[in-house]
């Protein structure tokens, strides 16, 4: 019996030492931080799905108002939370060569095929993909895609009209998600997913599953992040997502005879990139004996193509629907701003035969300001992260951080900080009439080399959807509408509201 007790005591002691082995990192550097919990660090409530990742970083941001940075432990990984715009500029832009990795995953090797994309990839894989994928989002290609955006925006009007006629309230979060899903189906894959007519369509179900965290998902991710080396090959996403994305991609490629079809959609662009052959770039990870960067190369195989299709779908689906629905929520509570939007939409469209088009949307400046303000109050990404790749002296701090340390920008906190914004809790689109005093206090799409390459496409698609809806309808708070919608505590990377965004929708004039 004594032997068993002794073994248990030794096991508990070793477990404690293992679970707290890195928790002296910030104390040694004189950085303020909260007390830690073994294995969980400062992230226990997020890991246990009691609070979203964005909110737990925001709490740390507000807890130390006089600091330029705050220490944090994300499970066992030391993380530096930035509060100062100049430090943020240094990390994500000026000194980005130290922070080229996003560090979303606990390890660099990506065993899961769908993660081999521009968002999740780090190091050389990211640089190779960035070189190939950036040309897919030029202004010319965006303009060529716009008729597809208009087609789906006009369908949105019909769906809103039907929903408003049969109910006192409409969940605009769900409606805008279905609009976004159909847009992505057309623009990315050249298919009619029909999510606006059929909310149970396969495309819609895959989109929902990507961002639905089950108890099993949470348990799996808990082990993956607390014991990253042991569970490095455990997948993040359920198998049904990979199976459906791969099946979809292979079917489209076969249908097009593995050649660009002339549709000018995202799949065509991927096939054009594949036809260009091997991608070669200078490595950011490896050097020759003389110190020059090695050349690295990659073929755009079907798994890499599937990864890009997945992230185009996942990123566009959640971020755009979140931005548009929250903007509508704010317009419902700010009728004067809504009226100004509608007057602008009517005036601009009158110059284009009352038809939505690329040029018309580009002229809707006040609508654009409203979308920007909506994304300030509820950014799709509530936080940004970069991983330090080599020792870095933090400017003006008097200490260095090591390779492997994460740096986080709490976008939620930054966007509502009274040091940077007048009346930060109010919806004031006019604040975007003039350039910002500091570029790095507004980061809905990130900044620097790892900024979102699809920013312009996302914004234009969102503006088209808003214009289509507001030209025909007005939105008002419904009986169940909460002034500040609660965030879903299960969200990690992309934040979402809990329970949707119910609004009352009424017709302005006959469609």
TrEMBL record:
<keyword id="KW-0560">Oxidoreductase</keyword>
<dbReference type="InterPro" id="IPR036396">
    <property type="entry name" value="Cyt_P450_sf"/>
</dbReference>
<keyword id="KW-0479">Metal-binding</keyword>
<dbReference type="Pfam" id="PF00067">
    <property type="entry name" value="p450"/>
</dbReference>
<keyword id="KW-0503">Monooxygenase</keyword>
<dbReference type="GO" id="GO:0016712">
    <property type="term" value="F:oxidoreductase activity, acting on paired donors, with incorporation or reduction of molecular oxygen, reduced flavin or flavoprotein as one donor, and incorporation of one atom of oxygen"/>
</dbReference>
<dbReference type="InterPro" id="IPR002401">
    <property type="entry name" value="Cyt_P450_E_grp-I"/>
</dbReference>
<dbReference type="GO" id="GO:0020037">
    <property type="term" value="F:heme binding"/>
</dbReference>
<keyword id="KW-0472">Membrane</keyword>
<comment type="similarity">
    <text>Belongs to the cytochrome P450 family.</text>
</comment>
<dbReference type="InterPro" id="IPR017972">
    <property type="entry name" value="Cyt_P450_CS"/>
</dbReference>
<feature type="binding site" description="axial binding residue">
    <location>
        <position position="452"/>
    </location>
    <ligand>
        <name>heme</name>
    </ligand>
</feature>
<keyword id="KW-0408">Iron</keyword>
<dbReference type="InterPro" id="IPR050476">
    <property type="entry name" value="Insect_CytP450_Detox"/>
</dbReference>
<keyword id="KW-0256">Endoplasmic reticulum</keyword>
<dbReference type="GO" id="GO:0005789">
    <property type="term" value="C:endoplasmic reticulum membrane"/>
</dbReference>
<protein>
    <recommendedName>
        <fullName>unspecific monooxygenase</fullName>
        <ecNumber>1.14.14.1</ecNumber>
    </recommendedName>
</protein>
<dbReference type="GO" id="GO:0005506">
    <property type="term" value="F:iron ion binding"/>
</dbReference>
<keyword id="KW-0492">Microsome</keyword>
<keyword id="KW-0349">Heme</keyword>
<dbReference type="InterPro" id="IPR001128">
    <property type="entry name" value="Cyt_P450"/>
</dbReference>
């Amino acid at each position: 019996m004594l032997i068993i007790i002794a073994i248990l005591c030794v096991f508990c002691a070793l477990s404690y030492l293992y679970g707290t082995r890195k928790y002296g990192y910030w104390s040694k550097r004189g950085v303020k931080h909260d007390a830690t919990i073994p294995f969980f660090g400062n992230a226990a409530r997020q890991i246990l799905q009691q609070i979203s990742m964005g909110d737990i970083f925001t709490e740390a941001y507000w807890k130390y108002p006089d600091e330029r940075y705050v220490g944090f432990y994300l499970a066992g990984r030391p993380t530096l939370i930035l509060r100062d715009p100049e430090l943020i500029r240094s990390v994500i832009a000026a000194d980005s060569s130290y922070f080229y990795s996003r560090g979303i995953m606990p390890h660099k090797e990506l065993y899961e095929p769908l993660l081999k994309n521009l968002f999740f990839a780090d190091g050389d894989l990211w640089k190779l993909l960035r070189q190939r994928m950036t040309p897919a989002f030029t202004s010319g290609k965006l303009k060529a895609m716009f008729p597809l955006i208009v087609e789906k925006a006009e369908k949105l009007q019909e769906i809103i009209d039907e929903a408003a006629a049969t109910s006192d309230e409409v969940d605009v979060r769900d409606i805008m998600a279905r609009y976004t899903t159909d847009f992505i189906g057309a623009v990315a894959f050249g298919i009619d997913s029909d999510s606006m007519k059929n909310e149970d369509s396969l495309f819609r179900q895959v989109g929902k599953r990507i961002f639905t965290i089950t108890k099993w998902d949470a348990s799996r991710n808990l082990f993956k992040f607390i014991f990253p080396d042991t569970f490095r090959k455990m997948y993040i996403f359920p198998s049904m997502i990979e199976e459906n994305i791969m099946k979809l991609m292979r079917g489209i490629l076969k249908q097009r005879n593995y050649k660009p079809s002339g549709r000018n959609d995202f799949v065509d662009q991927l096939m054009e990139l594949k036809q260009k052959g091997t991608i070669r770039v200078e490595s950011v990870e490896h050097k020759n004996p003389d110190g020059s960067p090695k050349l690295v190369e990659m073929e755009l195989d079907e798994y890499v193509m599937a990864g890009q299709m997945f992230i185009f779908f996942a990123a566009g689906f959640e971020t755009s629907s979140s931005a548009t629905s929250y903007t509508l929520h704010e317009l419902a509570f700010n009728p004067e701003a809504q009226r100004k939007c509608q007057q602008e939409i009517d005036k601009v469209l009158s110059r284009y035969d009352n038809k939505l088009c690329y040029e018309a949307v580009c002229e809707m400046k006040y609508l654009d300001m409203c979308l920007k303000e909506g994304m300030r109050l509820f950014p799709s990404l509530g936080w940004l992260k970069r991983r330090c790749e080599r020792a870095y002296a933090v400017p003006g701090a008097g200490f260095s951080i090591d390779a492997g340390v994460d740096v986080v920008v709490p976008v939620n906190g930054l966007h509502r900080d009274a040091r940077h914004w007048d009346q930060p809790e109010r919806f004031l689109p006019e604040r975007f009439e003039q350039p910002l005093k500091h570029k790095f206090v507004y980061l809905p799409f990130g900044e620097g080399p790892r900024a979102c390459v699809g920013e312009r496409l996302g914004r234009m698609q969102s503006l088209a959807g808003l214009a289509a809806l507001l030209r025909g309808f007005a939105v008002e708070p419904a009986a169940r509408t909460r002034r500040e919608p609660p965030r879903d505590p299960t969200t990690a990377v992309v934040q979402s509201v809990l329970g949707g965004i119910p609004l009352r929708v009424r017709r302005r004039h006959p469609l």
